[in-house]
Structures are given as structure tokens and as C-alpha cells.
Amino acid sequence: MNATDVQRSTAAGAVDAHVQPSQPGRGFAPGRALRPSAKVLPEHARSHNRSLVLQTLYRAGERSRADIARETGLTRVTISDLVAELLAEGLVVELGQRETARPGKPAVLLDINRTAYQIVGIDLSDHAMFRGAVLDIDGGIFSRADIPLDGATGEAAYAKVAELADTLIAAATAPILGIGVGSPGVVDLSGTVLTAPNLGWVDERVQQRLQERTGLPVVVANDANVAVLAEHGYGDAAGDLMLITVGHGIGAGLIVAGALVYGSRFAAGEIGQVMVGTDLGLETTYNRDQVLEHWLSVPRLQERIDEAEAAGSDSTPILREAGQRLGIALAPVVGALNLSEIVLSGPTHLLDGPLAEATINTLRNRTMAENHATLALRMTTLGQDIVLRGAAVLVLSGQLGVS
């Protein structure tokens, strides 16, 4: 890196560490931007600029060295040096000369090597089974595997995770960049599941144990956080967003100012246990019959709908009330963060329609209209694979610095 790049990097003043593929999974750091977009301090510049080149190619594809220099603001000398390094490692490939009518030697086009690695993604969020897939770096799924949970908890549940990981590793047809895992519960930055009641886990060191077992980089995170990474990386996300996962429980993932929000005790987004409403009076203390999951969790919601239909009643009021309770829980968050988008992930037949309409109407009724007039609420476009694809983003960001 020359003096010009040092000066520009110093002016940028941001920090984004790069992790080489050979290093075990390191996960994310709080406040770290998911996509590098500017240069950094001199002591961090080379690793950051390396990620910046990879990010440019990952998102844009087919760029010449001169194109990358223009788009990143780095000098051509620095780009040439970094590209030579990435070519030698097999992370970048030359595609041939650009077709052009301009005089002079045509530029050679580059792209990130999209077949160099595969990624193992594991989704532990379903109450009935653990699901997994082998993915390419663009989030495409090569093969799948799943294993019934059969009510397993504690060590028996971890054994099923390990068995699933072994099956997926055996199915890979290229070197594995890493393993990404989306787990229910509260997960810290070391990949330890601090608590996941449905799995009977307390301080379960899933990341460390899988790394020791497989010898591969592993990143474990809360399933809702993993899902919001998928929406950010592969979905239709346009900016700051909150993604609500609705299943056996209720969770949320938040991306604000381009960074994933963890919270002081890694429990940001745990909205399912928030009391919604004052049905029992303003002085009432925490009561599980008054929390959001009581109205919105899939088993509870489906049970109430089945009962209504068996009695010949319309189930629309049940869905509308669940949406209103969700809107009550979300209104303070939307107001505090001035979010532009809410995304729902879960059973479409339950969430899309009266429930979603009641949610957005409640949000608009409970926040200042001029500040949130453009607030959008929609279903995710990624379907049931959202956590699996988010697991790929976990690995890509942790290992290559791209998303």
C-alpha cells in the first residue's frame, strides 16, 4: 500500500477486520458494518482493502482492475497487488478480456471465484427437526439433509447437530469455507448458546465443540439474527430493517446503520417474551399469559384458529388480534429507531393477510405519522430456507469479509 492509500485510509477512520479462510470462525463484532465500503486506518488497511476488493466483486462481478480502483477509491498499484494475492489464493479468477471497440489493449475482467468453496448451513429453529444444506457462496443450495429432533434436549440434541454436520460435510463437493449455525435462544459472540429452553441448553458451547469435531471454521448465532442476515444479503432489504421470525417462539433480528444489533447481553430482538397490552392493569408484573408469544406463536395461533373453525366461527378476528399485539410490541422499537422496513418470516397462510394488515395499521396508529409514513411491512421472499442462507452469510462475513 502506498502513501496515498495510507492517507486516504486514515481519513476514513473506520475499522473492519478480515479473517483469512484458514482461521477458525470468529463471527461478528458488535457494530461492525456487514459490507465494507470505505478505506480504514493504516494498521488495518490491507486486510480491510482486501475485503473491499472481494466485496466489490462479490456484489458487482466482472470488473477490471481499473474498474475496482475507481469503485473503491484505492490506487491501481494497491489493486494490482491485492488482486495478485487473491488470484494466487484462488479466491479471484480472471475471466478473459473485455470486448470493447475502444483503442488500446482490452482490460482483463475479474470475478470472485464462486466455485472455490462451499458452505455448510444448519438451521436449529424448527421445533420438530434440524435442517441443513450445502450452499455455494451465492446462497444456492447444492444438497440438503435433515434429522428429526424427536423431542431430544441437552446432550442428545447436540449429538443430532453433530450428526447432521457430519452428513453435510460428507456431501460437499468442494473445500468447505466454514459451517454456519442458526440456533434458537440467546447466543453470545463466542457461539455459546447461553440459554435455549426448547433444546434444554444452558451455556452450551456449540461453536467450540463443532470446531473441535470438524476442524473447520464454525460460526453460531441466534436464528433470528441469522435470518435477518439472509434478508440483508440475499433478500429485498433496502436499508435498516427488523425481521420478525414467527414459529414455535417469536424472535427478531435488527440491522441498523448496516450493522447487526446484539444488545448488551446478546438478547436484542427477544420480543416474544414482552408483555403486550394492559389487560391485567398497569401495575401487573411479568405474566407469561400476557406476552407476545401467547398470541402469535404458531402452535398457539393455529390451535385457536382450529378451535374457531371447528365451532363454525370466522378466524379473521384471531389473526387480526395477533397482528395488533405484534404492532403494540413493535411500535416503541420503530419509534426509537425510525426503521423503514419490517419483514415477517413464518407461515405465509397465517402471517400474510389480516395479521400483517393489523400489524401495520397498529404501528401507524401508535407512532407519529410524519416520521413513519413510508414504513413498509412485507413477507420475506426467502421462504423456509432463510436461516440456511443466513448461515452462509455468517460464514462469508466471518471468513472473507463479504455479505
Topology:
Blueprint lengths: L2 H10 L29 H19 L4 H8 L3 H14 L2 E6 L10 E5 L5 E6 L5 E7 L5 E8 L5 H18 L4 E8 L2 E2 L5 E4 L4 E4 L1 H9 L3 E5 H12 L6 E6 L3 E7 L2 E2 L31 H5 L1 H13 L5 H22 L3 E5 L2 H4 L2 H12 L10 E4 L6 H15 L3
Parallel strand pairs: 3-6, 6-10, 11-14, 14-15
Antiparallel strand pairs: 1-2, 3-4, 4-5, 7-8, 8-9, 11-12, 12-13
Could you please describe the fold and organization of this structure?
The chain has about 400 residues and is of the alpha/beta class. The protein contains 13 helices and 15 strands. It has helices at about 5-10, 40-60, 65-70, 75-90, 155-170, 205-215, 225-235, 290-295, 300-310, 315-335, 350, 355-365, 385-400, and strands at about 90-95, 110, 120-125, 130-135, 140-150, 175-185, 185, 195, 200-205, 220, 240-245, 250-255, 260, 340-345, 375-380. α2 packs across α4 (about 75-90) and α5 crosses α6.
Task: List its salient traits.
13 helices; five-stranded mixed β-sheet; alpha/beta
Distance between the termini: 24 Å
Q: Largest sheet, if any? A: 5 strands, mixed
Number of strands: 15
Arithmetic mean of pLDDT: 87
Order of helices and strands: HHHHEEEEEHEEEEHEHEEEHHHEHHEH
Shape, per Cα inertia axes: globular
State the strand order across the main sheet: 5-4-3-6-10
Helix content: 25-40%
| Secondary structure tally, helices | 13
The radius of gyration is 23 Å
State the low-pLDDT regions, or none: 1-26
Strand content: 15-25%
Structural class: alpha/beta
